[in-house]
Each structure stands twice: as C-alpha cells, then as structure tokens.
Amino acid sequence: MSKIPKLPISTKENRPTILNGRPTSRILAKTLSDTDKKLLILNHTKPIGRNGVTTTLPAPRVKRAASVPVAAAGPSAKTSSKTNLNPKIPPYDYKARFQDLLEKHKVLKSEYSDLKEKHVETAEDYEKVKEALQSTNTEKDIIREKLLNTIKDLKDRTSELQNLKIDYDITKHAYEELQNKIKILNEVANNLKQKSLEYDHLDKEYNDLSQRHKSLQEETDALQNILALMYKDQRILRNTVQDLKGNIRVYCRIRPPLETEKSKPLFSLNVLDACSIEVEKTELLSSAKKGKSQHSFTFDGIFTPHATQEDVFTQVSSMIQSALDGYNVCIFAYGQTGSGKTYTMEGSCGKENYGIIPRSIDMIFSCMEDLKRMGWELTVKANFLEIYNEVIYDLLDSNKEQDSHDIKMVNSKGTDVYVSNLKEEEVASAHDFIRLLMFAQRNRQTAATLNNERSSRSHSVAQIKIAAINEMRKEKFTSNLNLVDLAGSESGKTTQRMDETKHINRSLSELSKVILSLQTHQSHIPYRNSKLTHLLMPSLGGNSKTLMLVNINQFDECFGETLNSLRFATKVNSCRTTKAKKNLTMVDNF
Ligand SMILES: Nc1ncnc2c1ncn2[C@@H]1O[C@H](COP(=O)(O)OP(=O)(O)OP(=O)(O)O)[C@@H](O)[C@H]1O
C-alpha cells in the first residue's frame, strides 16, 4: 500500500495563505486604507523615474500581492501606513516624502521578496501537497476500486453466505431427520433384539413341540392303524348284518294326504307292527259281492304318513355306508303317480325336506373327512339321466337334440356298464352336487312341459360314482350308487297314454323278472330286455345291494294300484340275491 505523503508541519511562516478560508488578498484589501491602496497600486504599477515621474511598471499579479499575509506585512507595513499618513512631512517636501516613499518601497520590496520566497516555498508546498493529493487521489481510486471490489466481494460472500445458510438449514434439517431415523433404527434394533430373544424362545418351544408332535404323530399313526383295522372289522360286521337282512330290502312309505286332498275318501290301512301293514277296502264290504278285501304285507320297514325325511334316511343310510365301503348300491322308489316317489328321492325345498339323494351326498362328503383321516382319497362323479319310452336322455345336457345314448359294457367281464355320450361331472362338495341336481331337475321339468307330464312317465336315475384309493394301505375300490325315481306304475286300464304305459309296464315287468330270476338263481338273468334293467345290472346283480321304497297313498280310488304296488314289492322282498362282493382290489402300483 502506498503511503500518503505527509504535509509539511504547519508553522507561522509556512502556513498556507488562506485565512479563515478566504484568500489573503481580500483580507489585505480590507485592512489597507484607501490611500494606501492607491499608493500601493501606484508603486506597483508605475515605476518612479529618475525625474520623479512615475514609470509604468508591470502590473503586479494581484493574487501574489493579495497573497501576502497580513502578518507577513509585519509592523513595517503598519508603519508605512502610518508613514504615509505621516503629517509631519509637509506635502510640499517632496524629497522627504520621496525618501519616505523610498523607505516604504524598500520595506515593501523586502516584504515582497519575503513574500516571493514564501510564495516559492508555498508553491513547492503546494506542488508537494498537489502531488500528495494526486497520490492520495490515486490511492483513493485504488482504495475505491478495492472498496468496490471488496463490496462486490462482500456481496458475493453475502450471497455465498445466504447459500451457505440455506445449505446449512437443509443440512440441519437432514441431520435432524437422520437423527430421527437413527432414533427409529435404534428402536427397531432394540425391537429386533427383543424379537430375536422371543424367536430364540419360540424356536426352543417349537423344537419341544416338534418333538412332542413327532411322538404324537407316531401315536396317531398307531391309532390310525388300529382305527383302520377297527373300521375294516366294522365294515365286515356291517356287511354281515346286511347279508343277514338280505341284499334286496324293501320299505313301504305311506304318503299323507295333502291339504287339498283332505276330503278324499280313504281305504282302511292298519300298521300292524314296524314291518307289517294291513289294507282293507271298506267299499267292497258294502258291495253286492259281500267279500272282504283284506291284505297284509310285510317288508323290511314301514314308514307311516308321519315319518319324516330324516326318519327315512336313517334307515337308508346303511346302504350309503355300503357304497362308501365299496359296494354297488341301488335305491329305487316304486309306486303309482302321485304316491310320493320324487318327494322321497329328491324331496322339496328346505333342508328338512331334502330327500334321499341330497342327504346321501351330504353323508358321502362328511364320511369322506373320516376316510381321509384313515388315508383314503375319494373322487366323486355324478351323472343324471332319464329313460322315457325306452330312450335315454342326459339331464345334464340342456340341448334339445341330444346324441343317442347307448348302454355299453365297461369290460369284457360284463360286470359293469356305462352310458355313451353322457355328461359326467366331478363333484367337489355336497353343494356342487345340489347345483347339478337342480340343473337336472330343471331340464326334466322343461322336457315335461314340452311333452305332457313326461316326468311322471319316465324313470329318472342319479348315478354317483365313488372311486377311493389308500396309498398307505395299497388298497382301492370303486362303487356305484344308483338312485332311481321310477315312472308311475299305473296299469294300462287307468291311463289314456297307452304307448307310455306300455313302455313303463314293460320295463317294470322286466325289473320284476330280473329280480325273480335272481331269486331263483337262474343261469340267465334277462337284464338286457329293458333299458332300465340293463342300466341297473351292476346294482341288481350278485355284487350289489338293492333297496326298494314302495310308495303308496291311502285314497280309496287308488286301492287297486296300491295293491299292485304292494304285491310287486312283496315279490321283490322275497328275492334274496347271492352274497354281495366288495369291489376291493389290492394294488401294487398306483
Ligand atoms: N311324505 C310326504 N309328506 C308330505 N308331502 C308329500 C309326501 N310325499 C309326497 N308328498 C307330496 O305329494 C305330491 C306328490 O308327490 P310326488 O310328486 O313325490 O309323487 P310321485 O310319485 O313322484 O309322482 P310322479 O309319478 O307324478 O312323479 C307332491 O306335492 C309331494 O310334495
């Protein structure tokens, strides 16, 4: 940095010719009297010639003269002024006056040279001051520039500071967040630590439980084995009981009159015991013939008009159990139109009104759970068909034009049959099955509307096929459960539709023939004489269990048909098939 030059030290002698900020000349002009001023002008403007005539002198620079300090003029100047006014010199004494003036001039000259010297000094000082001023100015410029730079720098720094402040705030915020996260992480870490401890504890418990589970599993396996053996014994026992009861069993169900039928005359019906009834036509007693028409019938069981759907199924369920044990089973409802066959087999709305078919599937699926526990895996399939005028219709196919359906042999042994082009659905639950049953019912009703009460005049068959496999015991079996709602069994005399009746009666009479042939152990059983017997062959033959429900009503007008039904049922009941054989096979490879 350049140094500002020092001004010369101010003294009385070198003090600048500025007094109170005013130029010295002006002060001088004020302090001098008018006469002195005139004289001063004369002395400095006109030089005095030898002859006393004033010569023209170059005009003194007013400034310089004026710059003479009053102090510099000294007491002589005052004296001169006084001399000038000296009244002692008479005006005519020019010589004295001249001398006086010379003196004054000498004084003034000396003052002038002093002043000149001082002027030179002052000029020098001035130059120095000027130089100092210049250098000061330069320095001032430099400083100014520096100051500007500094201000700019300051501004930049301020802006930088602002940015830094923002950065700081952001960083501070991030830091706080980080702190929070660290806090949370610490909490998580603590929790984890806690959980880890809990996990260790649970792991230990799990290991203990695993051990217990293992030993329990072993116990369960042993129990399961015992259970399976017990189940096997139970099955054998059940079958023995059924064998003793007979493989064709017949139950009679008497339908109650409906509200609308309450006024209809009834024939006399006495329930003698759990298995026997007696029917008597009172009208005949008062007739001219005077004969007493009284008939007794004995079956495996009687269901009175008060018997509920549940009562019926309780008796029937042993047959369903047989199907689950691997036997072919056929349950059919026989009786005249309106005797309650469909109600017995399918039932009506509401669970308590469910008939044998929906209850059977419920039982199959609930038993399936027990069988699963014993290592059995069951597959259930179902199909629904109708035989009308010796033609088979698929009730799961809603197409009006169906492919023809024929009954064919499953294998060369001829022990099992199937129906060609028939839709068969796998059933995963009882609900699934009910859905299919309802679909079949709808299709049957649609066909009935189109074809004049076809439903009463056709045989309806629900086939449930069970396939079971036990990998653990290396056993498997299949069984067919046929649930049949037969066509109304009216005789030809009582109906208008002869063609239908012919077909129905033929098939029912073929059914009767098959049963009789089985009863008398004929070498040839005429299964193929009707579609119905052909279809039911596996369920009617030796390797099967059959249950017939003969449905009757008590109306007087139906007495003849009721007798026919009861006689047919008696014929069936007297038939005892050969001992049923279970379809169980031992398997090496699954
Ligand atoms: N045990 C019963 N309790 C109450 N109502 C019954 C009973 N049996 C049948 N019904 C009712 O009697 C009517 C005739 O029964 P259902 O239709 O079952 O006879 P069906 O023999 O099947 O006749 P179809 O041969 O015409 O099919 C139906 O309204 C049915 O609900």
Automatic annotation (TrEMBL):
Annotated coiled-coil segments of the chain: 98-226
Pfam families for this protein: Kinesin (PF00225)
Entry keywords, A to Z: ATP-binding, Coiled coil, Cytoplasm, Cytoskeleton, Microtubule, Motor protein, Nucleotide-binding
GO BP annotations listed: microtubule-based movement
Subcellular location: Cytoplasm, Cytoskeleton
Domain Kinesin motor: 247-575
Residues binding ATP, per UniProt: G335, Q336, T337, G338, S339, G340, K341, T342
Family annotation (InterPro entries): Kinesin-like_fam, Kinesin_motor_dom, Kinesin_motor_dom_sf, P-loop_NTPase
Keyword Membrane appears in the UniProt entry: no
One MF term in the entry's GO annotations: ATP binding
Region (Disordered): 1-20
Domain of life: Eukaryota
SUPFAM superfamilies documented for this protein: P-loop containing nucleoside triphosphate hydrolases
Gene Ontology CC terms: microtubule
Family designation: Belongs to the TRAFAC class myosin-kinesin ATPase superfamily. Kinesin family.
Protein name in UniProt: Protein claret segregational
Organism: Papilio xuthus (Asian swallowtail butterfly)
